[in-house]
Amino acid sequence: MQVQNKSNFDYENLVLCSTREVLKETMAADEEEYYRDKWTMFGNEAEKVEIGKASAHMKYLEDLSQKAPDFPVPLRAHTVWEGMTVKLSFPPLLLQLFSLFFFLFLLIRLFIHIFSPSPSSPLFPSSSSTVIIVSTSSNTTSLPIFSCFSTIFPPLPSSSPFPPLLLAMTTDTATSPLALVLEQEAQFGSTFPPTWVREGESLVLKCGFTSAPLPFQQEVSWFRDGVQLHHSSRVDIKTASEMASITLRGIHKEDEGVYSVRLRTWDGVQEHSAFVYVKDASAAVVGGPASPLAVQVHDVNKDYVFLTWKPPSADGATPVEGYFGQWVRCNDQVQKMCHYPVFGLKEGTMYQFRVRSVNQAGEGRPSKATEPVLTADPLEHTRTMVDEWREIIITKDQLEGQIKVPFPPTDVHACEVSDTYVVLSWTEPEPRGREPLTFYVEQSLTGKNSWRLANMDKVVNSPRFPVFDLEKGKEYCFRVRSVNKYGVSDPSEPSMPISLGKTQAAPASPHSVQPFRDTDTSVLLQWQEPKEKDDILGYYLYYSEAGKQNWQTINNKPVTKTRFTVHGLKTQREYVFRVKSVSRAGNSKYSDESSSILVKSAIHVPSPPSAIALLLCSGSEMVLTWRAPAWNGGDPVRGYYLDQRDKSVAMWREVNVKPVKERQFKVCNLADGHYYQFRVFAANLAGIGKPSEPSEAFLCEKWTMPQPGCPYDLEFREVRHDSLVLLWEAPLYEGQSPVTGYMVEISQGDQSESWTPLNDKPIPDTLYRVPGLQDGQTYRFRVSAVNEAGVGRASLTSEPITAETQPGTKNIEIGVDNDGFIFLAYEAAQMTDSGEFLWSKNYRDAIDAARARVESKQNRSVLTFSDPTEEDLGLYTAEMSDNPNQSSSYNFTAEGKLKPLVLGISLKSGWQVDISEKGEVRLWLQTESLSKDAELRLIFNDREISSTPHRKINFDKAKGLVEILFDQLSQEDEGSYTAQLRDGRAKNQFTLVFVDESEQLIICSLSQGPYFLEFLSWIVTEDCELVIKCKVLALSAGPLRIQCTPEGFKLYCSLKYYLIHIQRIDARNKPGSSMQKVWIEIFNPTENDKGKYTVELFDGKDTHQRHLDLSGQAFSDALLEYQRLNFNPDVIVSDRAKVTKGLPDVVAIMEGKSLCLTCFIDGDPAPEIFWLRNDRELISQNQFSITKEPKCSTLTVTNVTMEDSGKYSIFVRNKYGSQTVNVTVGVFDHPENELNTIKI
């Protein structure tokens, strides 16, 4: 059954609510009296009447706009059967007179009742909705999506400014019965942050849109401190489809403040605000003050104006002493107060004013110029009547032509009183007359009646006059005479006694300055105003890092409130603050410093968790997991709370009373076959946050599928511009067989559903390094587990992640500390109080405290290895506990083998002793080349020594040469000499036990030390022989020999003295020398390197040669050995012969004792062992006893004598390499002898 109520109305002739006609009748009734009043009233009286009429008219229009639309035939309630169609009609309305929102309001108030024939049927089916379209393009529009009813509305006029609007009535029981579906509107996407700009520069602020603005959103409004900004010569406002922007050119300190941008939306207005700080421009002179601001012009007259301004925040090197006007200087004396009367201007002239601060350094920069002002009679409008309809202007001057000699002025008084001047004011005579007036000002001491002219040669054209030459402490009376061309009036009545005011003191300082945490880069500052606050214009704020006293200005425009948010601070830095009061008398002293505050974000409740997933179901239990909150509120999440509900029940029920620490929980006592929904709350110290979105409805049914469940807890580490590391947890449900690997998929963009596999074969680990990402692109990931039955369900999609390297990101560094221990160090870009460094191995395993220790200080953490071995190989990671995005890793491997680091200074030649023919003694040693920052400490018998005339010390850093030169030895020079060298983190020390034995010195003096006549060089003869040549005095040498190395051939000749000069030959042939040898290395030898090699030596008289025939079988054997050594470099590194420990650098022993030297050896196969003394092999006989074991060897020297002193060496070798370790042995006499001497 359909019910329709219709009435037969003549809509064409229907009289509606005629507000327009009512308005016309009202104005017509008032018109005659309104214009009569204008003709008969002058000046202020006529203006008051006009304002009153206009106010009444505006109020009438306002009341009219609040009147609801008039409906001649209102809609009535109807009851219909379900499934029927209802058509509601009403006559057209004058909707163009009313806001669209009135129309929406009436629509929402329209009730449609649907009668259901079945008691069990819902009032509104959950899958149905009613859609109503209001269009401006047709007469009527009807869209019956739901069969219950459709509604027809009249169209909006074609000139309506409102766009088409889509309304939808939904019937979801979980939501409101009526919802509005509007056309997609623009919102602010990107916004501008707090901004800093320097005085005189341009300011540009931009806001991006999420979509193109709709027609009604085209006008974007910009405001500064609540005052709307408009387009001008300095201000450029633009609105495009992508963004809105504002540009201010030539910024001034007056432009500092809160800038807001407003965008109209369907719901109202979206607004974004941020503070813009204007910094002082560079000073005009060194130490000069900053510019004043807020220069304003008051009390404009024909020849007089009054200026006021505010003092600057920065005094410069010395306090501001006063101010000068510009450009033509208005004052000769410095004005200390921030106000000044300017007299002597020309009537009818445009003026601008600006002010400069002055201190001992000079004048500062000028302030912003005022807007142009026109000097004129401010009362001119009171003497003029204008008939707008007939364009007739009548002035009082035209009606006062009979006035000749003027009347005296009245009401003489002081309108401005300062400690240096008084500004007089009076009222012009009434009637004034037609002729122009000027004035004479007279003054007299109170009670003297001795009047004299005050303006002297100054012409006073307006009823204002500043008097400067008054004496403090005395009272004056003033009177004024009117003057025109007909004569001078009588004097006015004298003023009341007037005297100079007291010097205005600077305001009192604020107090109780307190900072409060706000964000990671801002602090909320509050303070108490002083008791005497009447003259205070605002406050200047200053900050400094705690303990540095490096004060910086925060604002350059006085803040009028007693709280302010200070932006631009550095996270995790401590700051202190102080405040100044500002008045016309200047700035106050600084307030007391605030307490220091560490800049970090204030604590809030965490944001809601997300992505609730089901990991396992047993039929009565469900294991759930969820994603952590995107923001923890500034404090770590301390636990989670869960709610559950049956799908058929609307009420939520608590699952756990105690918080859950982990993001995984087993929900018990569920009914098999029921659907359940869950939600999660996160909690921290600030409280419990909002709940997550309800999960999907999970069916409580035991899992029996053969494929594994979904992995979970996808996380990111080491996010860089081209790569990242993805981690996840293995599924709790494995299926019919164990999980064998994982498949990883990637999707570019934050909404795309196009997935691309990253791996062709399943990967066994629960982490994957994703390479080849594009800088700045956004990606999502998901992971699936694999077993014998196939690929299981994919995990929940990860959060979108952008491939970019965050500013300040640092990687793990490796090094060796001062004690020789290898360490890994990581430095965090940002650090919070609750943040901790977490070190792990392969992202999962904890660090074994027995093998490495962790030390953290501030934002740096160091992992130091106690004794690194192959057990310590692996991938080491460091991350922040509260921000895993700050993370890095280091692969502590090198082709599968550990590379121990050595950070020391290499020695080329140990301590040597040279004695010249004149008896001068030279002690020297040589290391590798050192940097210019290298340091040397010489220790003699446990005390540090320096250069003296008797004992000169030379240190050539470039050559690594340390020398001690004695002009003549004495017993005081005997003892132990230790050279301690440090170059950056590298260091080493070398010791010499030195004694003076006259016989030995005589022997040494007969043989000159190594002296080069010609340095090392080489030539190739016509017979293709390579000749290595050097000329050295007093030299003995062994035969030329060959040694095979993994790099090639090494041809060497043993010498008696150390050669200090090394000269590179070419890329494949490298010469070198040591204390005992000179050699040339041939890298990567080939058949072309066959031939006869000769080294030529010169002893000062004769030339000696050493030859080696490297051809035939000798070359073949050497090449085969090289190829064998070079076959497997990995084995060479670990299994070559080497000495692990045992020999010290120096040994001192008493004569007659037994010397025992023990070394521990390693290598596979077991190395050959040789002991040498002064580079000659020792055999086990007489006083020398040698024992050799696979891992150990001992040399025993019984009944040592002075002749047993010297250099002892152990040489070990196997098929993979060799090593030599040296020790210097010194033997000293028995105590009963004259000295405990050591012979080296």
Automatic annotation (TrEMBL):
CDD domains reported in the protein's UniProt record: FN3
GO cellular component annotations of the record: M band
Domain Ig-like: 177-277, 1129-1226
Matches recorded under SMART domains: FN3, IG, IGc2
Keyword list, A-Z: Immunoglobulin domain, Membrane, Repeat, Transmembrane, Transmembrane helix
InterPro entries cross-referenced by the UniProt entry: FN3_dom (IPR003961), FN3_sf (IPR036116), Ig-like_dom (IPR007110), Ig-like_dom_sf (IPR036179), Ig-like_fold (IPR013783), Ig_I-set (IPR013098), Ig_sub (IPR003599), Ig_sub2 (IPR003598)
Pfam families documented for this protein: fn3, I-set
Protein name: Myomesin 3
Species annotation: Myripristis murdjan
